[in-house]
Specification:
The structure holds 3 protein chains of 3 kinds. By secondary structure, chain A is of the alpha+beta class. Chain A has 2 domains: 3-78, Beta-grasp domain (Ubiquitin-like (UB roll), Roll); 87-151, DNA polymerase, domain 1. Chain A contains 5 helices and 5 strands, in the order E-E-H-E-E-E-H-H-H-H. A 5-stranded mixed beta sheet of chain A has the order 2-1-5-3-4, covered by helices on one side. In chain A, strand 1 and strand 2 (12-18) form a beta hairpin. In chain A, helix 2 (87-95) crosses helix 5. Chain A is globular and about 50 Å long. The termini of chain A are far apart. Chain C has helices at residues 13-23, 36-41, 77-82, 84-89, 91-97, 103-108, 111-117, 124-130, 227-233, 240-253, 264-288; strands spanning 6-8, 27-30, 49-52, 62-65, 68-72, 134-139, 142-147, 152-154, 157-158, 165-172, 178-185, 195-203, 209-217. By secondary structure, chain C is an alpha+beta fold. Chain C is built from 11 helices and 13 strands. The longest helix of chain C is centred in the C-terminal third of the chain and has 25 residues, at 264-288. Classes of the chains: A alpha+beta, B alpha+beta, C alpha+beta. Chains in contact: A-B, A-C, B-C.
């Protein structure tokens, strides 16, 4: 039986009805068309589906959508402000912190969650921050360089 | 870094970067079409069995199921990428009579959603007659072994022989000979986007397929082979691809089953393989058993080498035949062996087919060769760098009867790594630095695919506002080829990178290109794009010369969108103005240039080779055998550097993948069943495990490459496993000859060593 | 594919227990679901009813009380990892959490869910057992408590009855001169344990071992205390020879399996190395305390 699901995604409130076995990633992708959130393993291992839920990172393939009822979500589509990219997005561009790009939305969301919680992480904390996300292309170090640049204040948040 | 270029060598954003960092990049996984159905594939749970009966009646009755197909619904053609050799086209994809590995496809369902399709799979009843199976190539090659394919003697799928010089005679002259055996494990590609396809067959008889692929052209042609739809009635579109690494240039079950189902229903069908299917039912790196014999003079001069290889082929030929050849060729790399012999046997087994993976046989040959070379150096009391210097390839070297190497910076790489190791100074206890040298090709010269087309072709169109569109069949699978090709085009035309757009990987609008494999696109597709741009440039120059009224002895060029006299750069006209006038002058036709490239007179392997040397530092916990990759430094030469950010990414990414190959990635099996078909169980290097990395760039120039460029993709995967093995030996004095070098193996070897010492 | 189920989201413990009574074996409790959803997707668990306790706020707490620390069962791993009081008084628990799966999993997954999953390779139980934790379970008929070490019965099987919920984990006050340490051996940093070892030591006069608890993870069907190994050290002045003996003894007491990650022999060898190593670390922590 479908149940009501009220969530706010990237600031936009939604009132949906979903089957209880629906995963949060499925609602985001299939119901809301937010296909930036990827599915790499569907078993909580790869992190490509990472989104922010009430300010913290979660793997949206491993959260029942109804458990997110009443929460505020941010997906990769919510990082930019209008036509201005966020500091992390700009840093990822400058440092080539993506290749095929399939893990990139999840990487960005893990990085964003890290900096939200801890604006001045050490290098070890940055590595921990993205350890739940697999990237088969970059070898991670360019992602660490991008986060480092943001931490150093090289990129300003768009107003 | 040289400054003679305006665009090349600049640190630029990938031209599709903003799409990727905003989540708007559309992958096949994201494609949704009106009236689209979802497909799922039923796979054999048995390694070897006859299909007696497939009953699909119950599945078809399930509400929401639109079609169920089996091998009987296909034309029964066997496909293979070695199209010139029909006996090597051995894979039906949807099996008709027999399954040959756990994961072989037997039926496919299209339904209104994924869950319904999956439910329907459970309702398909397949009656199998189990056959004896064989899993180990060493067993499969025996007289009485079960036959994987009827009529294939000793299950030998293909053999390869390479030889030059007089090997037997040379061994007699050696002061020292080593014979060693090695085993190279399998490896999964683990693309983040699993294999997927959306196939849409219309009532007009035309098929469009969106798919995650390394070669749209191959998929188009292979689908035509399998469906008898005319090649040009099939359009294959590859926009963004979530990784390939060698796994995505053969026709796969998602593509074929989606096409067959769509053909039956005239509705779009989407199939996305699950991660488990990705691990068990797509191809993988070829496991190899290696026997090496190496002979040298006292002074370290290598006189002869003999390599014998048996590879685990799995159930089908796939690209394994090429891996067999290349591992043999690269077993001689990057050294000047005056006498060399290679014999390779690829053996069918009832396991998942083995095929191409980044490095294509060379990571295996480099692991075994570089391990043995260090052993030889130790036997002779020679420094590992020295023995490599003594025998390493040099520019303008001919590999007898095989290949001609023009540019080669191996010796500069050795010098840099030597310096680096000295800089690292005295290491802490149980740390060790191991080195490995390597080389790789810039695209293959082989045409087993039997294409009548040029290997690469491109069309460049200049629009009235001066903006340029590049059309290329090359596939950007994340390695950044669209950016590289755009940079080549911009450099050739003397315009800004922002003025170039790239349309790639769409057979409906792009000229054919063999695609992204064998590290071929920078050189081959790059040459095609450069020539197409040059064609445009010549047309513009005609107008410019006329407009400027220059003396015909003067040379014109374009730089920073300024067409000028080379000797008098201030005398010129705007590129944008000339383009407008040129188009008007051509009766309104946009300026179009064509370019193509097929290697000729470049030997049998590749038009150019890249080289490098890598040093890996490990820290070993001698009580447990656990070790960490501390530091990886690579001196790499790839000719002119087109996209430095791209090369850094290729290098660091290769270390993650090749480090994993050396350290932890493996696919253990039990009676043909892969035991770790999930990312939780298949161990991958994550950020906390990733070593520090450093690149030492070496300047070389490759005459055959666009602006002097060559390969910088797969070769970087070659050295790491060997360097890890050598580093472990340096650190704690144990040598592991079979991959991956797990802590448990190191632990056991340390215990053995202690025992020997105690005696 | 996750099979359809009916979902209940009780807001109080009482409501949850009433639902458990009603559906008994037909229902499954979900909290963070980080392990459960994987099993459900594989079709290994397919309950018609799910009792979702993630929203029961009365079970999510970290309380520093006179007789020790109380952790509510639905407290997330991340809350434990970040808790100032845990970092101060039970640093081993916070440190263990930093290598439990990934941040995303720790943000949503809960300590209670992890413990109830009963995975012998899980990280929290060895540490909780070493710290002498008590688990409290509630059913509609009342509460009961048991030492954490008695909770697991077999692979993925616990003492929890189908009509019960784990509600609280209580940690006693750490005695003076005590220290605890935990490590897991694995090939990838944040991976599950190939072997996990937790050791808690209380030092007596002249640095003798007054009390010790050794707990092995991924070494038997349940987390286990090698009591003979403990006996080797208890009441003695610890020497390298005794530590080695304790390691050997623990390795004999353990009952590890061979799997794709490690052979049985290698797991025993790791225990031999890690028991002395962690005991030393625990002793060093005790001296710092």
């Amino acid at each position: 039986m479908k149940k009501e699901l009220k969530i706010k995604v990237n600031g936009q409130p939604y009132d949906l009805f979903v089957k209880p076995n629906t995963l949060l990633s499925e609602v985001l992708r299939d119901d809301l068309g937010l296909t930036g959130t990827k599915r790499g393993c569907n078993s909580s291992s790869c992190g490509a589906c990472t989104v922010m839920l009430n300010g913290m990172s979660v793997k949206s393939c491993s959260v029942l959508a109804i458990q997110a009822n009443g929460s505020e979500l941010v997906t990769v589509e919510g990082l930019a402000k209008g036509n201005k990219l966020s500091p992390l997005q700009n840093a990822f561009l400058d440092h080539g912190s993506y290749q095929c790009g399939f893990c990139t939305p999840g990487m960005l969301m893990s990085s964003k969650a890290l900096l939200t919680e801890n604006p001045k992480p050490t290098k070890e904390e940055m590595k921990e921050g993205i350890d739940g996300n697999i990237c088969r292309c970059t070898g991670y170090n360019s992602i660490i360089r991008a986060i480092t640049a943001v931490v150093k204040g090289e990129y300003k948040e768009a107003k | 870094m040289t400054t003679k270029f305006s665009v090349l060598g600049q640190r630029v954003h990938n031209i599709d970067g903003t799409e990727k960092v905003t989540g708007s990049a559309k992958y096949t996984f994201d494609v949704v079409l009106p009236n689209m159905l979802y497909g799922k594939i039923l796979r054999s749970p048995h390694p070897h069995a006859k299909i007696l009966k497939i009953d699909t009646r119950q599945a078809k009755k399930l509400i929401g199921v639109k079609a169920v197909v089996t091998g009987k619904d296909t034309l029964g053609h066997k496909q293979g990428i070695w199209r010139r050799f029909p006996e090597l086209c051995d894979e039906e994809i949807l099996c008709r009579e027999k399954v040959r590995y756990i994961g072989d496809a037997v039926a496919a369902v299209a339904a209104i959603d994924e869950d319904t399709a999956e439910e329907a799979l459970d309702l398909i009843d397949v009656e199998y007659d189990l056959l004896p199976a064989v899993f180990d190539p060493m067993e499969a090659i025996k007289e009485d072994a079960p036959q994987v394919h009827d009529g294939v003697e000793l299950n030998i799928n293909i053999t390869r022989h390479i030889e030059w010089g007089d090997v037997d005679e040379a061994f007699k002259k050696c002061d020292h000979i080593r014979e060693d055996q090695f085993k190279c494990s399998s490896q999964a590609h683990v693309c983040m986007e699993t294999h997927d396809a959306v196939a849409s067959f219309g009532h007009n008889g035309k098929l469009t397929v969106w798919t995650s692929t390394q070669s749209s052209y191959y998929i188009q042609r292979l689908l035509a082979d399998m469906t008898d739809i005319r090649e040009s009635d099939i359009r294959v579109i590859n926009r963004h691809t979530g990784g390939g690494f060698g796994s995505k240039f053969e026709l796969d079950s998602a593509q074929f089953c989606a096409a067959i189902l769509s053909q039956k229903l005239c509705q779009p069908v989407k199939i996305v393989l699950s991660r488990e299917e990705e691990f068990t039912a797509t191809k993988r790196r070829t496991p190899m058993y290696y026997a090496l014999k190496l002979g040298a003079k006292k002074d370290g001069t290598l006189l002869a080498k003999e390599a014998r290889v048996i590879t685990e082929g799995g159930a089908y030929t796939s690209m394994g035949a090429t891996a067999l050849y290349l591992t043999g060729f690269f077993s001689s790399f990057p050294y000047k062996y005056p006498n060399y012999r290679y014999d390779g046997y690829r053996v069918y087994t009832n396991t998942a087919p083995t095929s191409a993976m980044r490095g294509f046989g060379a990571p295996q040959s480099t692991f075994v060769g570089e391990s043995q070379l260090d052993m030889m150096a130790e036997d002779l009391g020679i420094d590992p760098i020295e023995i490599r210097r003594k025998n390493g390839m040099t520019p303008n070297y001919e590999v007898p009867g095989q290949a001609f190497i023009q540019s080669c910076g191996l010796h500069q790489c050795l010098d840099k790594i030597d310096e680096h190791i000295k800089e690292r100074g005295k290491l802490p206890p149980n740390h060790g630095i191991g080195v490995a040298s390597y080389g790789f090709m810039s695209g293959g010269i082989f045409n087993w695919f039997n294409t009548p087309y040029a290997f690469s072709a491109a069309v460049v169109r200049i629009n009235v506002d001066g903006k340029v569109d590049v059309y290329t069949g090359a596939c950007d699978i994340g390695q950044g080829s669209n950016t590289t090709l755009a940079m080549i085009c911009a450099e050739e035309l003397g315009i800004k990178l922002e003025d170039v757009r790239v349309f790639s990987g769409d057979t409906g609008i792009c000229p054919p290109d063999l695609g992204a494999w064998g590290s071929r696109q920078t050189l081959m597709s790059g040459n095609a794009v450069k020539r197409a741009a040059e064609d445009c440039k010549n047309q513009i120059m005609e107008f410019a010369a006329a407009k400027m009224g220059v003396n015909i002895v003067y040379d014109l060029d374009i730089k920073d969108s300024w067409i000028h006299i080379v000797a008098r750069p201030e005398r010129g006209v705007s590129y944008y103005d000339i383009v407008k006038e040129a188009i008007r002058g051509k009766d309104g036709v946009a300026i179009m240039g064509r370019g193509h490239y097929t290697p000729h007179r470049k030997g049998m392997i590749s038009p150019a080779y890249s080289f490098g040397v890598q040093a890996v530092e490990v820290a070993v916990d001698i009580e447990t055998g656990r070790y960490k990759l501390v530091y990886v430094t690579t001196a790499h030469e790839s000719g002119t550097v087109i996209n430095p950010v791209g090369i850094e990414g290729q290098l660091e990414g290769a270390i993650m993948m090749a480090g994993g190959y050396g350290y932890c990635e493996d696919q253990p099996m039990d009676d043909g069943k892969i035991l770790n078909p999930s990312i939780a169980d298949y161990k991958l290097i994550r950020s906390l495990d990733m070593p520090e990395t450093k690149i030492l760039e070496i300047d070389t120039y490759e005459p055959e490459g666009p602006f002097g460029a060559k390969e910088a993709g797969e070769g970087l995967t070659n050295p790491t496993a060997g360097a890890i093995g050598n580093a472990i030996y340096k650190a704690v004095g144990v040598r592991i000859n079979d991959l991956p070098i797990t802590p448990e193996k190191v632990f056991k070897a340390l215990r053995e060593k202690e025992k020997k010492k105690a005696k | 594919m996750i099979k359809d189920f009916e979902h209940f989201a009780p807001k109080t413990l009482k409501e949850a227990l009433a639902l458990l009574d009603k559906y008994q074996d037909d229902c499954k409790v979900i909290c963070g679901g980080q392990s459960l959803l994987i099993l459900m997707r594989q079709g290994l668990v397919a309950p018609p009813y799910m009792i979702d306790i993630k929203g029961i706020s009365e079970l999510s707490y970290i309380k520093d009380e006179k007789d020790g620390l109380k952790i509510g069962a639905t407290t997330t791993h991340r809350a434990i990892e970040k808790s100032p009081v845990i970092k101060k008084k039970y640093p081993v628990l916070a440190k263990m959490e930093t290598r439990l799966a990934s941040i995303q999993t720790r943000n949503w997954g809960t300590i209670g869910g992890n413990v109830c999953h009963g995975d012998p390779a899980g990280d929290p139980l060895p540490v909780l057992i070493a710290l002498g934790a008590t688990l409290t379970m509630a059913g509609s008929k009342g509460k009961r408590s048991m030492p954490a070490e008695d909770f697991c019965l077999d692979y993925f099987e616990t003492a929890l009855e189908p009509v019960e919920l784990l509600t609280e984990i209580a940690l006693p006050i750490v005695p003076p001169n005590s220290g605890t340490a935990y490590t897991k051996f694995n090939v990838i940093e944040s991976d599950l344990a190939t072997v996990g070892v937790a050791v808690s030591v209380t030092l007596g006069a002249g640095d003798s071992c007054q009390d010790i608890r050794i707990v092995l993870g991924a070494s038997a069907p349940t987390p286990m205390r090698p009591k003979k190994a403990e006996a080797v050290l208890k009441g003695k002045k610890i020497t390298d020879a005794l530590l080695a003996q304790a390691g050997e003894t623990a390795a004999t007491e353990a009952d590890p399996i061979s799997d794709i990650y490690a052979s049985e022999e290698y797991r025993r060898e790791l225990i031999k190395v890690l028991v002395p190593r962690l005991t030393r670390e625990a002793m060093a922590n005790a001296k710092k305390a």
